[in-house]
Amino acid sequence: MRSHNNDTTPRRHIVIGGGIVGLATALTLRLEGHEVTLLERDTPGHGASLGNAGTFATYAITPLAQPALLRQTPHLLTSRDSPFHLRWRHLPRLLPWLLRFVAEARPARVRHNIEHLNHLMARADADWQRLLVAADAESLMTRRGCLYTYQTHAAWEQAAQEHEMLGQNGIDYRVLNEHQTADLEPALAGKVKGSIWYPEASHVADPLMLCERLRRAFETLGGTVHTSCDVEQVSVHGADVMVSSSIGQTVCDHAVITAGIGTRQLARKLGDQMPLEAERGYHLEYPMDTPLLQRPCCIAEHGFYMTPMAGRLRVAGTVELGRASDPANPARYRYLERVMSKLFPELGAPATYWMGCRPSLPDTLPIIGASKRTCKVHYGVGHGHLGLTLAAATGALIQADIYSKPPEWLAALSIDRFR
Ligand SMILES: Cc1cc2nc3c(=O)[nH]c(=O)nc-3n(C[C@H](O)[C@H](O)[C@H](O)COP(=O)(O)OP(=O)(O)OC[C@H]3O[C@@H](n4cnc5c(N)ncnc54)[C@H](O)[C@@H]3O)c2cc1C
Fold first, then answer.
1. Which residues line ligand 1 (CB under 6 A)?
2. 400 alpha carbon to ligand 1 midpoint, in Å?
3. Whose CA is nearest to atom 18 of ligand 1?
4. In the predicted model, what is the mean pLDDT of residues 252-267?
5. Which residues on neighbouring strands pair with residue 177, listed in sequence order?
6. What is the distance of C-alpha 78 from the center of its chain?
7. Would you say 153 and 194 are in contact if contact means Cβ atoms under 8 Å apart?
8. Mutation probe of ligand 1 site: the residue of 27, 38, 39, 40 with most atoms within 8 A of C-beta
9. 71 or 326, which is more confident?
């Protein structure tokens, strides 16, 4: 067991990777008075964090690996109209991740993963409020809930049954029929058979703008950002942590690796293995002055959200398992366009096409905690579909793990769970 120093003396930190998780972590540490430098290979906020669906999904305590999903897999893999796609030539490399994913669908594992997602979600909102105030970004967040909609009665009724578990775990939701759904979202009238409404959920007007506000607050408070800085290796030398990058070598007392899908390689060089894979996701954007929808609406059977954002509707989601560095797959854009043109033919062609990589672990839980090798390096990675929702909680938990007393359940999110 690695010991925590519990010493509150301000230290020199380097945060590697300026996505939403790295930015939230850097700002959290800076707010506590520590010296913090953020190193980013590209421009902060331009990885997966740029293109997400913008939903603070605090209701999402259901892990992806579920017996029901496994039952649907043959259909999901073979249908042209599937929100899921596997790039078969990468199967040999993906197989270990997929086998772990299947193992996570055992009932005891599902219960364990729900419990820990629930711990994270219970604090996600409060942790975000603190950072939104610090970043003067409260106006970017709107709380009008989120709708999961269903296009058949059967799918809606089944979802309502499955949601009983959420209620038992304290998640507020309402089951709405076709008419109640249309009362909330008139544009969906006649297009869906029912929905589940999560009234507590909120969404962001622009995920990139949120990243930029976090960065601005961090720099205003005296934090340093180096862009175009590709980190090659993190190593420990006595009391120091050495970070080698394209701008040279930098020494600090402690490093936090929040490099999204790039974390796996840095971890491996440090001696840590983690089953991190890219769940590639896609988005399209339709410019519009008057919002079509008032809140994020997920078309559950098609695996994507439609989220009203500043000056546009973003249609974001679906999952493609493959290699992070492969170019975007045009067939996945066509899939989203096909479904959208059936639902809202009046929208015409989208103006923006985007693909990005969710950094995902097979149990739907992130790694938040120290390296197996040293308590001088922490990870905040593997948030999959929930990185926006959980970024502020991740920063606060890393801060607590280094400097104070973290909650006991945090141990279950450590990298130690992967052998
Ligand atoms: C289509 C889609 C929809 C989504 N919808 C939602 C949603 O509604 N709600 C939600 O909560 N989540 C959602 N997500 C998930 C969420 O976007 C991700 O979990 C989150 O963005 C991950 O953030 P991150 O900071 O870990 O990674 P990233 O945003 O990818 O940031 C990692 C950063 O590290 C940098 N980096 C990598 N390697 C190095 C290196 N060696 N040196 C220096 N820098 C490096 C990268 O350049 C990048 O900027 C969605 C994702 C997708 C793709």
1. 16-22, 39-42, 46-49, 51-55, 57, 230-231, 258-260, 262, 266, 281, 283, 316-317, 356, 358-359, 381, 383-389
2. 22
3. 387
4. 98
5. 194
6. 27
7. yes
8. 40
9. 326
Q: Looking at ligand 1, which atom is closest to the CA of residue 280?
A: 53
Beta strands in 8-142 (DSSP E): 12-16, 35-39, 55-56, 84-86, 141-142
pTM to 2 decimals?
Answer: 0.97
Among 15, 52, 333, which residue has the most ligand 1 atoms within 8 Å of its CB, making it the best to mutate? 52
Residue 81 DSSP symbol:
T
The number of the ligand 1 atom at minimal distance from the alpha carbon of 20 is 25
DSSP 8-state assignment for residue 408: G
Structure-block tokens of residue 331: 């067939």
Distance CA 316, CA 282 (A): 6
Place of tokens 């989203």: 336
Question: Helix (H, G, I), strand (E, B), or coil: what is residue 61?
Answer: coil
When pLDDT is averaged across residues 90-109 and rounded to a whole number, the result is 93
Fold (topology level) of 1-74+88-141+201-277+359-419:
FAD/NAD(P)-binding domain (3.50.50)
Are 195 and 150 spatial neighbours (Cβ–Cβ below 8 Å)? yes
70 CA to centre of ligand 1 in angstroms: 26
Here the tokens at position 292 are 């079509």
- The domain segmentation of the chain, as residue ranges, is 1-74+88-141+201-277+359-419
